[in-house]
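Usage

Read records sequentially. Each one opens with the input sequence:
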Amino acid sequence: MTDRDNAEQSFTEEEEELITDDAVIQQAGRMDSDAGEYNADQIQVLEGLEAVRKRPGMYIGTTTAQGLHHLVWEIVDNGIDEALAGFATHISVTIEKDNSITVIDDGRGIPVDIQTKTGKPALETVFTILHAGGKFGGGGYKVSGGLHGVGASVVNALSTNLDVKVVREGKVYYMDFATGRVKTPMTVLSESAPIERGTIVHFKPDPDIFQETTVFSYKTLLTRVRELAFLNKGLRISITDKRPEEPVSESFCYQGGIKEYVSYLDEGKETLFPEPVYVEGEEKDIVVEVALQYTTDIKENLRTFTNNINTYEGGTHETGFKSALTRVINDYAHKSGQLKDGAESLTGEDVREGMTAIVSIKHPDPQFEGQTKTKLGNSDARQATDRTFSETFSRFMMENPSVAKRIVEKGILAQKVRLSAKRAREMTRKQSGLEIGNLPGKLADNTSKDPEISELFIVEGDSAGGSAKQGRNRLTQAILPIRGKILNVGKASLDRVLANEEIRSLFTAMGSGFGNDFDVTKANYHKVIIMTDADVDGAHIRTLLLTLFYRYMRPLVDAGYIYIAQPPLYGVSLGNNKELHYIDSDEELEDYLVQLPSNAKPKVQRYKGLGEMDYDQLADTTMDPAHRRLLRVDPADAQEADAVIDMLMGGDVPPRRQFIEDNAVFVEDLDI
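and closes with the structure output:
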């Protein structure tokens, strides 16, 4: 390992195995609106990687921070493919000081000989031509995540510069590129390599493409690197951030694979049995792995992967797992007598309550939806997952009757709660938010019925609600006051949630349902603004509301409809001048007062609550679109957001206590 460590210091990181095909991308031009003609002159022909730079969203989904990080995964996934093929044992990712990325793997190294079809070195082909590679014919890779053959070339096209070093047969080969074009043809950099084999890719994203940001998030990369280590047992993956004054670095390697992943997700929770159930099998060249555990929690946590790609939209492998799980548990429940003859069978929702599970399959020819690969469509994956899991899990239930009994009991309890919630849901639905006469009593609705311009302010307290109603724009702004702290839905069952008057009022006002029945297209408001006091209690209420939206109305968060108002903490006027200068924090107030002339006579008003503001002050600072400041809730990392909400709002005290101890700010010698 010493030579390998030295290589990391002298080069940088990443492996690329998406050889691409020579294809000329043709794109039809648009009709010239001035000339009004449509002929051959209006046809654009985009050669090489021009199409990628012209329409980057077609290849990486988006040019936001999400697309920026997608570039890293396009390169890392190819190193993972080398590991799946049995060659790579270590992959390292480094964020350099200038926000460029280096990825190293110790796989076979990208081929450097001449590719017969293009007449160019395969290394050049990989990084400059779309749609060809060693992953199409099945000879180079039995299983692969990077199937489209566009990863390396797309990263190259969307980077201001990219350079690659390949170590093969003792030699170091080198090429570099600028915005997808060859800058330095392939050369032999050294006849004696410091490592046995591998690929080193270094790239810097183009700010002209990624105009929102080119700054990589260490936390985002770390989360995915850890996930990849869980999914590939025995593979070591390292990540380093060189930007801080003291660089940070972490390395992950899990011999237990996804079994350890489930334990990691359930850390701090009470589980129903000592360690997760683990299933592994193969059918028709499809390798299936499932790890499963039950906790005393009520939340389901299911994550599915295909060839290490997070299929967060699910697909056929998820369907196969869910079908098998429901069938096996119901079969056992009836055979054991826990469900009497004629009793209603448990639903999938019942048997998955409190479940944490990872489903990971390796498929030789997966069919994804697009290059971003979020949903699996292979029908054979459903059958393979269903059979593999059901056989082993059924045997586990029979061999562990005490554990099986607890699983069934949890499902039966979930069924009772579901039926109770169903009755409450039916009562809630009768008060449709679309019917004006049935809107919650405290809701002051806006007059427009266009959801795109309609805003719902959820305001803490009747007093602040009264000010908000006076200061609002009646056409577009609706006001819903709530009393104090709502129920913590992070540790409450659905029937308790629906019994809460404040929560029912919010569900009714939105008119879009909740939970599994939520339909974001029916939302009455496309801006839901949480407006609470700028103090600790206000922050607590805000967290409770965010937990409610995240757990029961998640599509609102994903659609970007949830906002947090930013009311000021202080209002300062000078002398007899009644004009107020608004200030957000104690530190900002101190800085402002220090800068005032010595003869100034500031009058400082601290707003302990929104209700202390006059309606015109509240409107001016927090409601008027011309002056207000809103924060949009955008969980770019849903996995991390889910974990944080679990920790802060769940029933487990020790992790929350540890978080408070680690993050609390103590103020000493406070002079008031």
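Summary fields computed downstream for this record:
- The two ends are 59 Å apart (CA to CA).
- The chain has 21 helices and 25 strands.
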